[in-house]
Amino acid sequence: QVQLVESGGGLVQAGGSLRLSCAASGRTFGDYGMGWFRQAPGKEREFVAGISWSGGVKYYADFVKGRFTISRDNAKNTVYLQMNSLKPEDTAVYYCAASMTGRGTPSGDYDYWGQGTQVTVSS
Fold it and tell me: Average of pLDDT values for 12-21?
């Protein structure tokens, strides 16, 4: 069992930056692939970024490439999402998720989810 708690969301102006964190419980965090997803009001949840268990492989949605960076610190049981050059369309609730496959791929199966953190980007 893995419990995930996101933090770091908030209100920021367009062009600004935020860093989201996702702290995981459990002693096997390093075995899991991790992903960040988001869901805007009235829209389906969508993949944002993913990272393999070792951090060696990363995946990004096209709409965040060059702006967002995913990273992880297995010693701290934490995965991060650095978000730069934020746009109003990035406004959403952001969720982290853990995949027992270890891969963190966009279409992978994710077994555990956090409760989300709100990101609001004003124009």
Answer: 98
